[in-house]
Write a structure and sequence with these properties.
The chain is α+β, with helices and mostly antiparallel strands. It has 2 helices and 5 strands; from the N terminus they run αβββββα. This is Transcriptional activator HlyU.
């Protein structure tokens, strides 16, 4: 029955996925790929906790990949590059 359900468009609910952060140069990176038409859009958050204040930068990229794990890996790589290039200026 699963094949017929997929064939005729039965909707399935998105399952919440626990996101583990990646620490990089004092920043916390949270990959949060967005499911979209059978693919995953690169998305996530970068957080910085400093002097009791938490600052957050969210971003969504135009890149889409077939596998969620690959999308999350690419997000982390792009976030690290952004941190290297801009540092704390990403919060301005």
């Amino acid at each position: 029955m699963g094949f017929l359900s997929r064939l005729f468009g039965k909707k399935t609910e998105d399952v919440a996925v626990a996101v583990e952060s990646v620490e990089y140069k004092g920043f916390s990176i949270y990959p949060e790929a967005i499911a979209e038409n059978g693919q995953y859009r690169i998305a996530g958050r970068i957080l910085l906790e400093k002097e009791g204040d938490t600052r957050e930068h969210r971003f969504i990229r135009s890149d889409v990949l077939i596998n969620r794990g690959d999308a999350d890996e690419l997000m982390v790589a792009k976030a690290k590059m952004l941190i290297d290039q801009m540092g704390e200026k990403i919060f301005q």
